[in-house]
Please model this.
Amino acid sequence: MTTNTENINIASNEALLTPAELKTALPLSDTAQDAITNSRQTLQNIIDDKDSRPFVVVGPCSIHDPKAALEYAQKLKQLADEVSDKLFLVMRVYFEKPRTTTGWKGLINDPHLNGSFDIETGLKQARQLMIQLVELGLPLATEALDPISPQYLADLISWSAIGARTTESQTHREMASGLSSPVGFKNATDGSLQIAIDALQAVSSPHNFLGINRQGQVSVVRTKGNAYGHIVLRGGGGKPNYDSETIKSCELALEKATLAKNIVVDCSHENSNKDPANQEQVFTYCIEQRLNNNQSIIGMMLESNLRWGNQKVSDDLSKLEYGVSITDACIDWETTERIIQQAANKL
Model:
């Protein structure tokens, strides 16, 4: 009797269009490519202390409605132009969400919000929206979660994050070493910094690993290393970690590891005690630290949407409230605009 020994728990295996096919169908214009190159260079200049402005990664916790995201982007572009001499604004376009157990995994995985996992449609919707946002003149930021999706979308990204759940992952450190954008590594979920510092040392080195190429073939990916890694403080272990004492400890730890003292503060998550109203306090504190000549804080992150709070997804999608997050609760546009304008005025 012959017993099958492979794919015992695989229900199906569907072939996707290749990265090259998606990029041919939805190409980048020369203008968009120039804008992305320029925004990446600006972020590199901030990290290298050649540009004195902090950057702010701001936008929805996750994007589930491209129409609302485009409306948000139009507002953000106007604000970005107003404060451009003091702050460099980058829009969050998070299409993949890590889950502690289960839940909606983001627009790419489940664009119809119904558990159908129409990933090809998700990739097309994500790329189409990102092209629209770049054509508006906005730099884009995302979380690099799936090791395959960067081949489809990373050419549009100016800044990437590696989340607290994946900072310790060898797969994500290797992947980040090949990303074309600066990348921020978040501290561990328990609040410890060492895992992120280890990741920064790893990401700057060349790596060799299995991946795919533009034609969708499995290949050996050989990277050069990413010189623009930095740490992101997001709180952990039930406590915030944006206070001056923690910032100082982080600076010392980076210095000991012979790493540049570049720190981004995530104003959400446990730094805000998962209450969107507290993001303003964290953001304002970081601005005050900058005014007190703490130049190690090079950027901040805000979770913001058209409207305040969050909502649950039900079977009746018509009940979803427009412009409200379906993942973490966000501050609304009016609050976002006010606190960023206030920060620019102070700076």
In short: The chain is about 35% helix and 15% strand. Residues 162 and 185 are 5 Å apart (CA to CA).
